[in-house]
Each structure stands twice: as C-alpha cells, then as structure tokens.
Amino acid sequence: MKAKEVIGLLEEVRKTRPLIHNITNTVVTNFTANGLLSMGASPVMANAPEEAAEMAKAANALVLNIGTLNREQVKAMRIAGKAANEKGIPVILDPVGAGATAYRTETALALLEELDVALIRANAGEMAALLGESGNVQGVDASGEADNPKLAKEAARRFEVIAAVTGVEDAVAHQGEVFIVQNGHTLLTKVTGTGCLLSSIAASFLTVQHSAGAVAAALAYYGAAAEIAGSLTTREGPGSFQIELLNALHATQEMDLRHYIRVKQES
Amino acid sequence: MKAKEVIGLLEEVRKTRPLIHNITNTVVTNFTANGLLSMGASPVMANAPEEAAEMAKAANALVLNIGTLNREQVKAMRIAGKAANEKGIPVILDPVGAGATAYRTETALALLEELDVALIRANAGEMAALLGESGNVQGVDASGEADNPKLAKEAARRFEVIAAVTGVEDAVAHQGEVFIVQNGHTLLTKVTGTGCLLSSIAASFLTVQHSAGAVAAALAYYGAAAEIAGSLTTREGPGSFQIELLNALHATQEMDLRHYIRVKQES
Amino acid sequence: MKAKEVIGLLEEVRKTRPLIHNITNTVVTNFTANGLLSMGASPVMANAPEEAAEMAKAANALVLNIGTLNREQVKAMRIAGKAANEKGIPVILDPVGAGATAYRTETALALLEELDVALIRANAGEMAALLGESGNVQGVDASGEADNPKLAKEAARRFEVIAAVTGVEDAVAHQGEVFIVQNGHTLLTKVTGTGCLLSSIAASFLTVQHSAGAVAAALAYYGAAAEIAGSLTTREGPGSFQIELLNALHATQEMDLRHYIRVKQES
C-alpha cells in the first residue's frame, strides 16, 4: 500500500468529519475523544439504553469497547448495535480483556453473534480468546510473540469480519486479503487506551471506505503518528509521549507520512 | 467590563476556594477537576443518589452536566439540585448534546422545570434545542454562525436564568443585561471538555457574585487563558494546548489578563 | 531507610510487573492506569459484580477507591475483596472523601469490617473520619496541620492494618513500626488523583513485600518522582507537572533516587 492511499483516506476523513459514537470504558473516554478530535473526526459518547439507538442513528460509525463493561452498558451496546445495523453504518468491536474473565469473553462473543460487526480490533491475546485458543492476557496489554496474521485470518473467516490483530506488527485480514502494518512505537504500550483509540480511528477510516485496506491505512497512519511522537519525546517519558501522540495525530501532513508508512499486502 | 473587575472576581475565587460539586459526564471528570484545581477552586464529584444531597449541601455551587447521562445519575441530579436550592447555592446546567437525542433534550428541560437553575451554559445548537428551535448538533461541538446574543436573551427570558451561549463570540444575558465576550482560541474546539470545564469555572465565579457580569468575567478569564495557552503551543498541537490551558488557568496573573480581556456590554 | 532498599523494591516491582486490579473512581481511572504503566506495573479496571471475583483472582493486588462510589460498584468491591482475601493478595483501601458524606464513611467502615484489608492510604481528614474524629474534609484534598504519625498509629491499631496518612510529611504505621516520609512536592495538591495513584503504587510495592517498610518505600519513590517532576516544571504549571510526574515515575533510576529519598524510622 502506498503512502498516497493512506493520505487520501485520511484527507477524506478530515473533510467529512465523521461522527463516531463510542460506547467505551471509563478509563479511555477522554483520551479517545481527544484523539478523534486531533485527527479531525467528531466523537460522541452515549451509554444510556434510553438514547443509544437515537445516537447510533445520528452517527457514521459505532464503536463497542468492553473495557469496563457492565449490565446497563451491554444493554446499550445491543440497542445501539441493532440501530447501527439497521442504518448500515459500520460497527467496530474492541474486545478489551477478552480471555481475562468469562464475562468479557462471553459478552464479546454474544455481541458478535447478535450484531453484524464490520471490524474486530484486538491484541493477540484477546483475539485468541475469542477464537477459543489459549488467551493468556496479562492485564489489557498485548504481549508475547503471537502469530498475528494467522489469528487475523482465522478471526476474519470465523466471524465474517475484517479482523485486525495489533502488536509489534499488525495484521489485517478480510476475505483472502491480508495486510501487514509495520508502523508503531514501543511507547504505545506505556500509555493506557492507545489500542482503544486506534479502534475508534479505524472506525473513522471505515466510514470513508469499507475495506481491509482502509483499516490497514488507519493502523499505518496511527503507527506513523506514534513514530513521529516518539521522535519528539525526550527521555522516553510516557507522559510526554501521550501528549505528542495527540499532537502528531493532528499535525501529520502528507510530507511527514510519506517517510513513514510501511504496509505490505500478502497474497 | 474592565480587566480589573475580572481580576477582582478571580482573586476572590482563589481566596475563598469554593467547593464545586460536579455531577458530570465520564469523558471530562478528570479535566474538569484539574481545571478547577488549576484555577484555585476545589472540585468534588459525587454521582450516587445516596450522597448527592449531602455533598451538594457541603458545596458552594452545583454543576449538572448531561454529557453521559443515565437514569441513576439523573436521579442524583434531581436530589442534589433540590438540596442546592434549599441551601441557596447556585445550580449550573450544562445541557451537553441537547438536541442530539430526545432523552437529553427532555432531561435538560425537566431539570429546568423542577429546579431553580442559576445559569445555563451551552453552545448555540444546544441552546436552540432547549428553545425548541432547529438544534442540529454535530457531536457535542459548537458549530455554525448562530446568533448567540439572540439565543442567550431568549433563553434568559424563557427559563428565568443567566444564559451563556458560547462559541466564537460568547453572549451572556440576564434580565436585560447582555455581555459579549470576545476572548477564546480555536484550539478550544480540538480538546474535549473545554466547554464542560468552562461551566464549572463559571459556577466558581457565581459563588462570589450572582450576576451575568460574573459569568461574563469567568468566560473572559477562561478565554484569555486559552489565548495565553495558544500562544505557548507550538505547531498547533491539541495535546500541548490542553496542558498549556491547565498551566494558564493557574498562572494567569493580573499583568497577563490586563492585555487580554475583551468584554463589551450591550444596552 | 536507605535509598538502596527503596530502589531494590522498585526494581522488583518492575521485574515482576504485578497486575493491579483497581475498582476506583471515574475521575482518576486514566491517570491511575498511566501512572502504573509508567512505573512498570500492569493496571486493570473492572467494576462489574459479574467479573469482579475472577479479575481479583487473576491479579496480584486489589485497590478499592470510593471516590465516586455507587451501589453496583460497592457490590463489586465486596465480591472482589472476598476473592482477594481468599487468594491471599493484598487489599488496599483508599477512603476518598470519608467524612464528606455519611455514605462514604459508612461504606469505608463496612469494607474494613467485612474484608481483611492490608493497607489504608488516606489523607489526615479522611483517616480522622474513619476513626470517628472531627473529619473536616474540604473537597477531597488533604489540609491542615494534622498529626499524621498519631493518626497512622491509631488507625493501624484500630483496624489492624498498615496505615499510611499522607500530606506534607507522610506517616506509615504498623504493629509498632512507624516510618516518616519527607518526600513530595506542593504541586501534587494541584493535580487530581495523585493520592489515588499513590494508593495503587503502594499496592504494587506490597506485592513484593508485605510490610510497612514497603509502603514507606512506595511513598518515598512517589514523592521523589514528584520532586524530580517539580524541578522540570516551568512556571509551576499543574498541567505540565502532571505530565512530568508520569515521565518521572518511568525514568527514575537508581542514580536519581539516591539524591532524593528521605525516610526516617521512629522507634
């Protein structure tokens, strides 16, 4: 994939300013909203069953993130998900901590069963848990030397979705297509919610083009922004990196991205 | 309005350190608390119906923000609001996303009906929605070229409150008085919760003086801090701006503000 | 206590990367998670009664923070606390705002009654409230010239816990041992959640060694990081300090700490 394609999709996101409805965990609401604003999308959070359907119908994409799930919120996810499916906007599932508790794994699987999900964005441990494989998740962080392309392909086939497994190298799979994204920075693992924000950014790209390529472009843009942020972070400080990442998501222009994007397509 | 009056009210806030009880959305809790601390007020958050009345009675002002409302929280808002009214402390309503869903619009109107609200702080789309006018709200951001003074005057009359409509130019109306505040910075629209924090800062100023002028002073102080923050933000980074805004709310001294404050009073 | 001992415990935390299960308030979730990641521990948040026990059993320590408590969350605290006790991992109580409302004081006391709590970390006003003494809490901030060692000793005896009372000088008491920690920085009072994060950091140290000394070491490390952060913060900006604190928690190396640690042991 050429940097030009990534930039084209990003520019389209910025032009259309899609409204992203996030039903997400209480740890990352602020960072997710700020990241979406920095990129140029419009965030909205709404968790009440009373308004979940109406908000989803006003939105351009819906992100369901189970990072601090509870009964009321899962109820709202179901309602919003059905409304999103009816309207035909993409539904993104971020199964945070799947495998860590049965409640998370079962809720994620139930949502996949009931809803028409466009994209699952997860780390290797979470995706393995959804696939019923040994999902040893230490906290909510990615870990280990998993085979991301294999997991992505299997999830794409099993759940009939675009599947993105992110880690040191990200893999995006859908109907035979597989993209490998080599952008990113180790400090992403030192800031909470960087995966959650990535799911919402991928949602934004999906509003422009419904394809595995658009998700790979979102991952490459985000990883490139992280690299730019990392290069501006002195003494590897996670606090500064978090701020520079928000800056980079906003500032990234065509010139910068051309030097960074590293996406391969497998056959 | 002279910079001197704004500074006098700010100094009084800092001297009295009012306790601001916020029942607010999960996106902005941290930023609101940090902004109030930076200015020199004391924040407290308490959402449980079990303690809402007691906390409101211990506070100097109560802020009700419907940004991620739910049934339990609205119940707590009612209880806290009644306690605040009994004690005679100002109740501030921030109708985040009014017009975006019926649940938000109706809840905001019900709170206005049931409680004695001192101040509504909203953007043009939200205020128009409360007034039953075409409230097209894109996400929770201000937008468009609304007639803020007209909306503020109408809301002030209709709801018998001080009404503040914020945007490129802010308008504050109350019983014939109208203030126009020309302070602010475009980066405020790139950071989530800047409007929510402003509502809590206006609440702090109301604890010192119950008037439209005090609200205009709060808006001018906040807008001036944003201008100072903007001038210290390199490459227009929204991440850095957020941090510089917290710094500026704290650092703003008499000398700085004198150069910034731009408040006009209409007859 | 020698800097060497503090550094030894910190290195052990970083090596073992303990999983800290936080059931905490909505204001500080993000900052707590980022602070734990910066230090080198693994944070997880899980508030639903459905998964509280399973998550606690997967964790190395459990932190219960009542800063925005509600019925469902308190239910989850009880369930998680019992599971943590069964597994034998330390349970840390942060009684945020005890004394401010009866609901908070009573909930904190009930948790102390029902659970085997390893550590209470509180400011003087909160600890006094738990002890039934005049607990005038202005917001959720520490204040006044309380006798921290006396309060810590009394709480340690009464509740049979390690008791840490933090303020200008911190006191940690347990079974006759008393440590006084003189590290810290005034800007800690200008950023929300710095006390909450400290509780979670103390929890991490307790996973390495169950002693008052380990808690004192955690407080000294945190206070030293705050001093380093303060020295890097220009113009006393609370926004910048918050970021520098996260940086310092990560960057603090043996060399730095040696110059900072100030812990005395009373007989």
Automatic annotation (TrEMBL), chains A, B, C:
The keyword ATP-binding applies. Keywords: ATP-binding, Kinase, Magnesium, Metal-binding, Nucleotide-binding, Thiamine biosynthesis, Transferase. Its EC number is 2.7.1.50. Pfam families: HK. It catalyses: 5-(2-hydroxyethyl)-4-methylthiazole + ATP = 4-methyl-5-(2-phosphooxyethyl)-thiazole + ADP + H(+). InterPro entries: Hyethyz_kinase, Ribokinase-like. ATP binds at R121, T166. Its cofactor is Mg(2+). Substrate binds at M45, G193. GO terms for molecular function: ATP binding; hydroxyethylthiazole kinase activity; magnesium ion binding. NCBIfam families: PRK09355.1 (NF006830), thiM (TIGR00694). Belongs to the Thz kinase family. Catalyzes the phosphorylation of the hydroxyl group of 4-methyl-5-beta-hydroxyethylthiazole (THZ). This is Hydroxyethylthiazole kinase.
